[in-house]
Amino acid sequence: MDIKNLSIIRQSFASTVFTHKVQEIAAENQESKVFIVKIMNVLLVSTVLILLVIQVSHPENLIFTYIGAGITVAEIIFLIIQLSFNFEQRVVAHKNSALKYMGLRDAYRSLIADVMNENISGAEIDTRRDLLQREYQIISDLAPQTSSKEYTEAQMRLNKRGAVFEKNLLGQMKR
Predict the structure, then answer these.
(1) CA 84 – CA 77 distance, rounded (Å)
(2) Within a domain: residue 172?
């Protein structure tokens, strides 16, 4: 069994698993933002409609007209922000990246099994390892950016001790 290649492949597998989890968490976080934006949009549109009904029933009171116009302007600005930042597209991008990492993760798992069972030659191991590493790099280059929040949450979900260790290490470095 090729122990050196196996350890490199396992490390790459671990990186792929971790990056997959980071992208999944980023998609979840974006989904919650999309939900909040949709709720805000429904509330603003409902408020505009209610104010329109009040304006029709009380045409002599101009305060409802001014408030309605202000909230309508706020709704238009909010819609422009939604179209500009396209929150739902970010969710799809993170989910697609997570799925690509998941496929890569499965390919690494198969390669590890082949190496451990000694089903393939050393040259083929090198070729497949390098091919998977190039694929990982391509997926990473195309993946949407994530934040340290998703990184830390992925650590916690995959290994609670790893995040605690890092927190202690950072605390020691600050001293």
Answers:
(1) 10
(2) no
Q: Which residue has the tokens 């609670």?
A: 160
Pair 33, 85: CB distance under 8 Å: no
Q: Identify the domain containing residue 106 by its residue range.
A: 3-167
Neighbours of 10 (CB within 10 A): 14
**Position 173 in a domain:** no
**Would you put residue 24 in left (φ > 0), alpha (ψ -120 to 50) or beta?**
alpha
Q: Cβ distance 26 to 144 under 8 Å?
A: yes
Rounded to whole angstroms, the Cα distance separating 128 from 136 reads 12
pTM assigned to the model? 0.77
How far apart CA 41 and CA 82 sit, in angstroms, is 10
Number of domains in the chain: 1
- pLDDT digits over 60-113, tens only? 888 988 998 999 999 999 999 888 888 899 999 999 999 999 999 999 999 999
- Rounded mean pLDDT, 54-63: 89
Q: Is 85 part of any domain?
A: yes
* pLDDT score of 132: 96
- Cα–Cα dist 65/74, whole Å: 14
> Stretch 111-123: mean pLDDT, rounded?
92
Residue 146 lies in a domain: yes
